[in-house]
Structure formats: C-alpha cells, structure tokens
What does this fold into?
Amino acid sequence: MKDNFSNLPQRELNVHWYLGNNDLDLRYHSLGIGGIHPDPPNDNIVKNTAKLKPGIIRIFLQEFFYVYKGKGEYDWSKLDAYMDAVHAMGADIMASICLKPNALYPVIDEKIWMPTDIKEWQELIRTLVLRYSKENKYVTHWAIANEQNIGELGGCPYLIECPDDYYEYYKFTAAPIYDVLPELMPDVKVGGSSHAGGGKTAAAYHARFAELCKRDDIPVDFVCYNCYTDSPQGHAADGRAIRDALNNVNPDIKLYMTEFNVGIDDGLSIEEKPYQSLVAASLAASILALHNDGCLDGSFQYHIYDQYCDFNLFAPWYAKARYMTRYWNDKINRVGLLDFDGNTRPQYYVYELLYKMTGTRATVHGAWGDLHATASKSENGTLNNFIVNYNGNDKKDIVTTVKFAEAPEGIYKMNVYRIDSITCAQMKASPMCDLPLSESRPVYMCPDFAYDVYTPADSVTLVQFVKTVK
It folds into this structure.
C-alpha cells in the first residue's frame, strides 16, 4: 500500500549534536503591548502572558494616562494601575515615552516637539523615571518617542522627520534620566530613536543620530525600529542594514525591533485571519531568520493582546483621533497573541515552543527554502528540534527526515507539538489552555538515530526527546 504521504516531497535535515556549542536562548525575542488605550490587562491576560515568562515587555506611555496636570501637579492613578498589571506579567519593562501634556504642548500639532518649558518637561521626566525605576523597580529601559518619523500616522504624537531635530529632542529628554541613573539600578538603559520601518531609510536616520551623539559625547544605549512583513528574509535584511550602519558609527549601541509582527494591514478585518496557520509559520520563520542573522539585541511582538481605541481619550491631544479609532475599532486589527478576553491564539504557542528551545545549540544542515530549523540540547538532557515550513505563496506539504549524528544514546520519550491548520481550527472553535501533543511515544535512540515527521505547509513543529530514567 502506498499512502498519501509517500507522494509528498521529502526533505532531509541533519542535526550534529556535538558540532555546536553556543548557547541558544530565544527569549530576547519578547513581547509588546499598548499605545491604544489605558485600561490595565485583565487577570486572564496577565496569567497567560506570565506563563510564557518573557524577559522584557515593551509598553507605551501615551498621553491618555493624563499623568501631568501642569505646575508640578501629577495624577498617577491610571498609569500606576497599568504599570502594576504589566509588572505582574513577570517581566522587566521597556517604556517608550510618548507623553505630550497640554500644559507643555497647548497647541495640538504633531510637528511641535519642543515643550513650552524645557525645565518643567525635564522635571516631569525625572519624576516619571524615579517613580518606575527606583520607587517601583519596573522599568529597565527608557525609550524616547516612537515612530517619530511618521508622527500621528504611527499612533504617537510627535512628528520629527529630521534626525538632527530628533537629536535635539533626545538630548533634553534624556538628560534628566541620566542625571538620576546613579540613584537607580545599575542596568537601567536609555535609548532612541524609534523608526517606522527598517532597511536603508531607517539605517540612515539611526546612523545620523548616532553620529551626533558620538560627536557631542551624548550617551545612548540603544535605538529602535518597527517592521511588519511576511518575509523572513526581508526582516533579516532590514535589521542587518541598520546594524551595519550603527557598527560604522558606534557598535556598542544595541538595536531593538520594538514592534515586530507579520504583514498585518491588507485592508481586511475578519475574525478568522489570526487563526490561519500561515500567520504562526511566518512569525516563527522570521524569528529564526533574525536569530540566524544576529542583527538584533531584542524584538517585541506587537501586541500581546487585541486593542481598542476610545476617541474621547485621544481627541484632547491628538489631531488624528478618528484615524486611530478607524484603525483600531472599524478595522479591528486582531494582531494579539491573545484575544481581548485573554484566550490564546496560534502565535502565542510559537513563543511557547521557541522558549522551550533554551539550551546548547546544535548544528543543523538542510534548512533552506521552505524549511527553517534549529536544534538544541536542554540542560536536563532534552533534545529539541524546531522546524517551520513556510515559503510565502509557494506552499508544499513536506515529509521531513531528520538524521542525527553523535546523538546521546538511551531511552527517550518523543513528544511532537504542531501548529497547523488543524490545531488552528481547533483553537478558533474552542479556547485552549495548552497546545496538545500531536504524538507521544518512547524511542531508543542510537547515535545515528533518524525519524520522519510530517511538516505540512504553513506549519510550526517542535519535536522533543525527553530523557527517560530507568
């Protein structure tokens, strides 16, 4: 009998367990949230995010928290509640400062980036930093502004198209943070700029900003950019262009993609979209491409959970308030790892599976085109094979044969997890607390052990071999 699988294309991956000796920890690809509304995430969102154990969560400090009333008067009630909830997710925080209080910016105009009183602005920043990096040890990274090269079209109130102008804004905003750093934890960092889009344009903007900082001996720990594309190669190329430009000026400046996701804006708003397996596969393949290139010091998937926008919270300080509500309410961009109630989507499990890969990296040969793969040996002896089948529009179901070299001999439990069209449909039909096993069985592993695994188009597969003690 010749089954249907025998007719599928076959590929081979070779895993050499003792050729690689570098640590593998993909938690630097983390999560982001916020910028759209000030409501704290609910308990289910907090619980499910905490289960992933992310390293750093990136957030926005938007004006809708209404912290500063003017003349030294503050109201921390909304922001405190939000920060407490994010901190309960168990991670450090990167906070992007996007505040624009009417007391210091009385005219609603994205092109106005200079406050009416710089000293008063700096006292606001100093007070903010002391509250959330000293009194509450929440924030370890302070980022100054977001997507300032496109302003309100990027969801934030500053349009600073010229890097020279941004440098001036950065100087007087970063100064009070650096002034209080001796009072803070030793690992608090300060950075900017943030650029909507990667590639050569972002590289030129960041390089010029870095040159000005170097010229005047102004410290900067990191810069950021945001990118949405379904091309893993495109993600890696965009990040590499910026990294190379920074290396020419100051290689010590770290690079973060503070908004990382697949292509999300095709004009359609349909609830089934995030439950397509291609979304999870594109995300996973892009993370592997970025990791293999080594261009980033961190990324933040945007968003942790779905967002909505209240027109009345934006209108007092934002000229394009209707644009924001149209983008986040009319269109309903369902980009979250979780829905608004905190139920998991396929992309949530991409991060769960990737984070299981922590250990010593093995060498993998044969990953090209459709197949993206990595392998690792965990500290407890578990062997991990992570395989993605994703190639844009050229979709092929594949049977992958994985051959080991110098595998540690013994009895193992073979566990297979798969995100594909079947599990995605199950998730859409009924919320999942855990990704179910596709298969679990004992195997005796010889040093040249080999196995076959079905890797359908647009799928993410983790095969784990858990050492059995007898």
The chain has a mean pLDDT of 95. The domain at 26-354 is CATH 3.20.20.80 (TIM Barrel).
